[in-house]
Amino acid sequence: MKQIWYLIYNLLVVPLIKFVLFFLKFFNAKIKEGIQGRKKLLENLIIDLAGIDRRKKMIWFHSSSMGEFEQAKPIIEKLRKEKNVNVIITFFSPSGYTNSLKYPFAEIIAYFPFDTAMMTKRFLNLVRPNLAVFMRYDIWPNMIWQLEKKNIPSFIVDATMRNKTSRKWVISKSFHKSFYAHVTRILAVSKNDEENFKEFDINCDIIKAVGDTRFDRVYQKSLLAKEKKLFKDGFFKGKKVFVIGSSWENDQEVMLPALIKLMDFDPSVITIIVPHEPTIIHLETIENTLLGKYESIRFSYLNNYKKERVIIIDSIGILLTLYSYAHAAYIGGSFKQGIHNVLEPAVYGIPVLYGPKHENSQEAIQLKNIGGGIVITNKKEAYKKLRKIFIDDKERLKIGKICSNYVKENIGATDRILVEIYKYI
């Protein structure tokens, strides 16, 4: 079946992808940027590789974008501490590539080549990696087939496979089997994912559940975040802080009325709102919603703070640190298309609240099942549950403890992954 899918993929699928991308570049700036960035990919690689010490082994890590790269960082950084190797990192998305150019633990940062038989072959002939690591799900058939042909070990790390996924549909399943079967190791995040991968009728010996590096990464980052001082010492003394993280308008429509009511009930509550996209329009929408009820202040104007009970964050990159000040947090996206990262607040041992659209996150599901995640579906329920955790300190601390224990109990995937990698380098 591999040969049949090879022909279908290269004669039909690849030309179709190229046509769609060529068309969409006129309407999507990111796609256009990605196409432009790959035009001199091989030429840039030749220049970058000229200064590489080829006596060292070359380990290649590929991530789709920044989210997956965050999962790769604990592996890369510990690998560099323990082994004298070269590291090359590639990205599919322009945002991942652009935002990682100064990453200090890699010799080369590059785009992933277009997945044609010719380009993948030329890429591998230049880079000559000793091992390839694909993060999570961004797997490309021609590259996998070329790696196997050249006897280069390939890993899928932090691999996930849901119970209900289009990858298991009959034709799709046959297609995915045609390259999953040719990966050296599939390191899944859970036993459930491991069992789902086995449904592809591939060699079970290549599949193993080792955990999720996101737990390692968020724990590492939380230790660093605690050292940052976003507010003066004593700023929140005697206050109870609630953080709404990565919120969309859908989240705010539910949470802001509940919070206004909570602040009416409890004068000690302060709310920090962190919009997913802190545009001027989004910030003004939040301010207008609060108008007439509570004064708010933007974070960039905090020097003019006059005891406002709502702080609106108008910058990016500080959310993890903000959670360290919180008594509880709500995670955005869960009234829109899907929840954002629940581990970032959970690591600090606080209750984590979120809406009904959280099935995209195994961690959100697991936290709910063990009593650390609190699901809300409407304004009335939001107020009721917020009031309970802010009145009952004992209950709040109990729920927070469940969250922090959940993160700590799942740390260690990085070490288990490196044990498997070291068998091949």
Overview of the structural elements:
This protein has 18 helices and 14 strands. It has two domains: 222 residues, 3-Layer(aba) Sandwich (Rossmann fold), CATH 3.40.50.11720; 187 residues, 3-Layer(aba) Sandwich (Rossmann fold), CATH 3.40.50. Helices cover 48% and strands 15% of the residues. It has 425 residues and is of the alpha/beta class. Helix 6 packs across helix 7.
Q: State the share of residues found in helices, binned by percent.
A: 40-55%
Total strands: the figure is 14
Number of domains: 2
Query: What is the CATH-assigned architecture of the largest domain?
Result: 3-Layer(aba) Sandwich
Q: How many DSSP H or I helices?
A: 18
Q: CATH topology of the largest domain, anyone?
A: Rossmann fold
Q: Kindly provide the name of the CATH class of the largest domain.
A: Alpha Beta
CATH superfamily of the largest domain: 3-Deoxy-D-manno-octulosonic-acid transferase, N-terminal domain
- Mean pLDDT comes to 95
Residue stretches low in confidence (pLDDT < 50, at least 5 long) are none
Distance between the termini: 31 Å
Radius of gyration: 24 Å
Task: Classify the beta-strand content into a percent band.
Answer: 15-25%
Largest sheet descriptor: 7 strands, parallel
Q: Structural class, from secondary structure content?
A: alpha/beta
